[in-house]
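=== RUN LOG ===
request id: a7f3
mode: sequence -> structure
chains: 1
length: 115
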Amino acid sequence: QVQLVESGGGLVQAGGSLRLSCEASGIIFSAYPTGWYRQVSQNQRESVARITSSGSANYADFVQGRFTISRDNAENTVYLQMNSLKPEDTAVYYCYVIVRGTYYWGQGTQVTVSS
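=== RESULT ===
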């Protein structure tokens, strides 16, 4: 079955950087779009970035110029490089992959940015 395992979250000061990783198994990862959401509160989930199977990336306005999504298909992994972090970036970050219309999710990783 499809599994996504995330790593790389943690506590960082404002202005710092983190890199999130998400390794997929159970699928031909290179064939599918993938990306990251974040859960800011119980009722607020936001799309952060996504990348197509061909490597075309899209970003939410609030991360433009600060975050970079990339994928390494040989490693079945999608990355989210987060620079210039702000306290409002504090959230649980989830990776996902879309396989034939179905979303599969990672377990989530906490990112906390202190001011």
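=== NOTES ===
The chain has a mean pLDDT of 96.
The CA atoms of residues 40 and 91 lie 5 Å apart.
=== END ===
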